[in-house]
Design goal:
About 35% of the residues lie in helices and about 20% in strands. It is of the alpha/beta class. It has one domain: Nucleotidyltransferase, domain 5, CATH 3.30.420. The chain has a five-stranded mixed sheet. Helix 1 crosses helix 2. The longest helix has 22 residues. The radius of gyration is 15 Å and the shape is globular. This is AtsE.
């Protein structure tokens, strides 16, 4: 995947968010860490996930809330004009929850998604995954 300079890359799972910006160009991907505000982990997840007894799974509900909070942050960045292009790399379960909260404007700026958990990996690993996509 080739990404224009300035593209934001969100690397997330249900507990952590790392934001990067492509400071290189399309032919030379170079990710640098980007600052972001606090993620509201109390955001309303879809709430569709329940354990076998029919009671909500508290840890899954917390992860869903964090995933929804990440998308709130990304939606705001897109709507405020701070994100021109976006790639989301997330653990498959978190990515599924995140998709439910994408604003239509975020969808328009979305350049790609990678369903893989890379939150604990190096920037080089993230760059390799993007190049391979």
């Amino acid at each position: 995947m080739m990404l224009p300079k300035g593209t934001m890359i969100a690397v997330a799972d249900g507990e952590k968010l790392n934001l990067f910006r492509n400071s290189g160009d399309e032919s030379d991907l170079k990710l640098t860490a980007a600052e972001h505000s606090h993620v509201d982990d109390k955001a309303q997840g879809s709430g569709l996930r329940q354990n076998s007894s029919g009671n909500p799974d508290p840890s899954q509900a917390s992860e869903d809330g964090f995933s929804a909070g990440i998308v709130e942050l990304l939606n705001k960045g897109v709507l405020d004009g701070k994100i021109e292009g976006l790639v989301v790399i997330a653990a498959p379960r978190a990515l599924g929850e995140m998709r439910k909260h994408y604003h239509k404007t975020l969808n328009a700026k979305l350049l790609g998604e990678i369903a893989k958990d890379l939150t604990g990996h190096s920037i080089a690993d993230v760059e390799t995954a993007i190049r391979a996509a």
